[in-house]
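Good morning C.,

I know you're traveling, so I'll keep this short. The sequence:
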Amino acid sequence: MYSSLFIITQVSSPLVRTDYGNGTVILTSRSLLLLKTGCQVESVVEIARLSSISKLVVENVTIVLKPVQCLRVYAGSSVKPINIFLEAESRTWDILLRELIGGKIISTNMRDLFLMEQASQNVLLLDALVQSSKSVDSVCFHSKDVSMAVDLLSHYAKEETKQKLLIACKTLLYRLNPNADELDTVTVECIIYVPGVSSTSSRTSTLSPRMSLTSSRFEAGVNVPPTVWCGMGNGKIRIFDASSWRLYPRYVQAVDRVVSLSYTCKRIWAGSFDNLIYVIENNPLALEFQTLDQHTDYVVDIQNDPSSSEHVFSGAINGSIIQWDANQLEVLREFHCTNSILTSFRVISHKEIWCCCKDSLVKIDINGTRHSLLYYVDERDSRRYIDTFCIVDDYIWAGCSDIGRVVVWSKTDEVRKAILPLDTRGVSQMVSIGSSLYLGCKSAYTKRRSITNAIINSPDTSSKSRLYVVDAKNFAVTEELSAHNDTIRCMFAVKDQYLLTGSSGTEGKIAIWKHHQNSEKVNE
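The tokens, ready to paste straight into the viewer:
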């Protein structure tokens, strides 16, 4: 049962005696309530908030020479407990309360509100287990000792679960779930932050008159709020309101997965594996868009032109790169990186465009002429695949796809300067913020047998993927963070202050981090 404020997870039998009077005890996702017998709803009394409960004890109390089970709740700093005489239900209520309190603690520490919803759902499922055991003709194995069954199936109430999930990470601000209303969890392929736009600007004033009534506030002079856009593995482009972290119900649906996002000229450009580019107006309530079909293969990356805010580049996996007029949506130029499979690229200038081509980094110009080729050969004389790269000042950083190594070259003389060994299966993403470089890594694999008895690798959800923080000036790892249960698939830096990371399909969540070296001046 849901309300706008909380979830009601458990209701006791009527005429329960408490220190606050007699009535029905109600357990919600926020607090423990008492609905007094014979009173109206307005007379509901709050026994204790979940966040204030410090201890729970089930004891036998003698009342009129009769032993009665009592649940004693210690709240806040009070030494005196609150007595709730639930009798035979006391043990079950104790476990259900511990499950919710454990979920509350873990949800707060992991900055993930979805975990509190999961804990509430767990309580509802455990209550269904209790109710099924009360049937007269029940033959369920748990009907003999329902308290033990509930205790075994509880998750957040267990101390080992709390120790495993709690991470005291001051830099982690929020965790978002773009898969909250999906049946299957899918990968967050790409992510971007879009600043708010004034509705009095020329772009916003051209909104379609077919907008719904709920969007009338945008036409009344109210600003469009800042948003976070996510390209998903199922082809959806989901949007969060960055001022409230509310997930908008509307979305753009591509035919195949969306793997790149860019923002220019007050429009969002999205590249998809359906060979199309979706150009979307920055209005989450209207979501008007056009498609560009000049590419003949997967669109793998979209980059803004540093020399002009009105131009944008898009690249396809076959090496085709197109320069666009971002306002007129017209092709200005097309050239090719013919070295290998194109996975991403960075535009430094029209004379310097670096392309990541599976096992090498290639420097070309705007005419497609190749000027440089960089690759990494390990001690076994094997050429390693490169999943991601980043250019920081005069250095090029490349992350190996299938080994925990980061290779650094000088951009001026193209000489290898350093190799950073990392305890990970591979490096999947890189983003620089100030003098720091964030390295998103792949999750560990565990071997299991398939239906055909073949041994295959699958993500190990018991181990978290790592996020390394590197001092780009000294080529040294300064910190190791963790928040995702799967490979970090995408990253985005916001105003040199925050970092957004998105994970693969086993988890499919977004983490928002505070750039922990904003105190770089102090460190210096």
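Safe travels,
E.
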